[in-house]
Design goal:
The protein is of the alpha+beta class and about 475 residues long. Helix content is about 25%, strand content about 30%. The strands form 4 sheets. Strands 11, 14, 15, 16, 17, 18, 19, 20, 21 and 22 form a 10-stranded antiparallel beta sheet that branches. The protein has a 5-stranded antiparallel beta sheet with strand order 1-2-3-4-5, with helices on one face. The protein has a 5-stranded antiparallel beta sheet with strand order 6-7-8-9-10, sandwiched between helices. Helix 2 runs antiparallel to helix 3. The relative contact order is 0.07. The N terminus is likely disordered.
Length: about 475
């Protein structure tokens, strides 16, 4: 016989109801008081979704709530004001705005023009046109040399405010913007002028010897021009010749920026010594005189071309290189590169400046009543040289070429006395006027100290050389 028995419940009904109540209370506690892990996740989500400003406020509120709910002080990072790495990656300071510089200094390089220099600082063709056409003087900005600095100053909107150009150690120019356009300004620095002594013995070349002695090209040319009436520098110079001089030196801030006049000089050529002293008379006229007060200047200079080579002398029986027959050569030929300057041998009036048969381009100058000179085979004429103009001794009248019956670039130079051709190299040139008797004492007062200074400097230099 089978009987069915009902199993008793596992838990009393009162226990089940109590368990349900506890579960409900726990769920409510979890909702009201979240765990630290849940809070951290919630904070992390806010970092990703909110802006930095919103996050800063939320972070403060969250930390305060956490401290109250857990009865715990804020973390050390919160106390010190430091931020975790994740927060640093999210909060970045705005990038600074780079401001455009208002001053630019550029140096002229090979191939640069004013246009390329303006472009380097962000200025366009219109800016250049406005500046360079503001006045006639403004065009001097185009005088550029490699290495020369130009300073540009711009306005805040990128327009040219001023540009400064240093032409030399002694001269600067500038264009400055005003209410009426650009104003041109020139600044000249007045150098300190001192005196300097130099001496050299010539081996091979006057220019190389002068350069070794510290003389510039221009100063060497001045030296040759002073003695050019007595010494033919194309023909007479020999190894062992020597020179010495006292000259002006220009100095700015302790730096030599140039040279001035030669005050006194000596030149020994083939054993004969010539002396020259610079003197300005009471009327303001300056010239060079020897120690006796006699002018170094003659009526004619010996050679109308500096340092040229004599390729053919005066002759009555020379065979012409082109015509190939015996024909008098009534002048002297000076060979030099094409374009070498040709100087007037003396003061006079131009009788011809143009084509002249086999002479090609030629200039004929009449000097008073007795003398006439001719310069042939020129490449071209100097500016202002034309029929009827007066020229000064040493003035550039043209340039060496090979026009007419000529086999190469050279100057054919003729000298006539009363209509008769003579050898210009054999002529004894007449001297200019000496120091007037009324100024002789003043001349001696100025010249003797200079000559004595040269003697002293030379003795000192020779003594030092002997000690070495």
């Amino acid at each position: 016989m089978t009987s069915s028995t009902k199993a008793p419940p596992l838990y009393p009904k009162s226990h089940i109801l109590a368990a349900s109540g506890v579960a409900a209370l726990l769920s409510l506690a979890l909702l009201v008081f979240p765990s630290r892990e849940v809070e951290a996740k919630r904070t992390h989500l806010n970092l990703e979704l909110d802006s930095s400003a919103e996050y800063s406020q939320a972070e403060n509120e969250t930390e305060s709530a956490t401290a109250l709910s857990l009865n715990k002080a804020p973390s050390p990072l919160a106390q010190t004001g430091e931020t975790p790495d994740t927060e640093q990656a999210s909060v970045e300071a705005p990038a600074p705005v780079e401001s455009k510089p208002l001053q630019h200094i550029v140096r002229v390089e090979n191939g640069d023009t004013l246009s390329t220099l303006f472009a380097k600082v962000g200025l366009n063709a219109n800016d250049l046109h406005e500046a360079i056409n503001s006045s006639k003087e403004a065009k001097q900005l185009s005088r550029l040399k490699v290495g020369q600095p130009l300073e540009f100053n711009l306005t805040t909107d990128g327009k040219l405010d001023s540009v400064h150009s240093k032409l030399s150690d002694l001269e600067s120019i500038a264009l400055v913007r005003t209410d009426k356009g650009f104003s041109f300004k020139r600044e000249l620095v007045k150098p300190e002028v001192t005196t300097s002594y130099s001496r050299a013995v010539i081996n091979n070349s006057l220019f190389l010897s002068a350069k070794r002695a510290g003389l510039s090209h221009n100063l060497t040319m001045d030296l040759a021009n002073i003695f050019g009436y007595d010494i033919d520098f194309a023909l007479d110079i020999r190894d062992g010749d020597e020179f010495e001089l006292i000259y002006e030196k220009k100095v700015v801030n302790g730096k030599q920026v140039g040279t001035g006049n030669i005050l006194s000089a000596r030149f020994t050529n083939r054993g004969k010594t010539y002396t020259a002293v610079r003197y300005t008379n009471k009327h303001g006229t300056t010239s060079y005189y020897n120690g006796k007060g006699e002018s170094m200047r003659k009526a004619f200079i010996r050679t109308p071309v500096d340092f040229a080579r004599i390729s053919s002398r005066f002759s009555n029986g020379r065979r012409h290189p082109i015509l190939n027959k015996i024909r008098a050569h009534k002048g002297v030929d000076y060979a030099a590169p094409r374009g070498t300057p040709i100087k007037a041998a003396g003061d006079g009036r131009v009788m011809l400046a143009g084509r002249h048969g086999g002479y090609g381009n030629a200039v004929i100058i009449q000097h008073g009543q007795r003398y006439r000179t001719l310069y042939a085979h020129m490449n071209g004429f100097a500016k202002g040289i034309r029929n009827g103009v007066n020229v000064r001794q040493g003035q550039i009248i043209g340039y060496i070429g090979t026009t007419g019956l000529s086999t190469g670039p050279h100057l054919h130079y003729e000298f006539q006395v009363n209509g008769v051709h003579v050898d210009p190299l054999s002529q004894k040139m007449t001297m200019a006027d000496p120091i007037p008797a009324s100024e002789k004492a003043r001349f001696n007062q100025l010249s003797k100290p200079l000559l004595a200074q040269m003697d002293k400097e030379k003795s000192t230099m020779l003594a030092l050389n002997n000690q070495r």
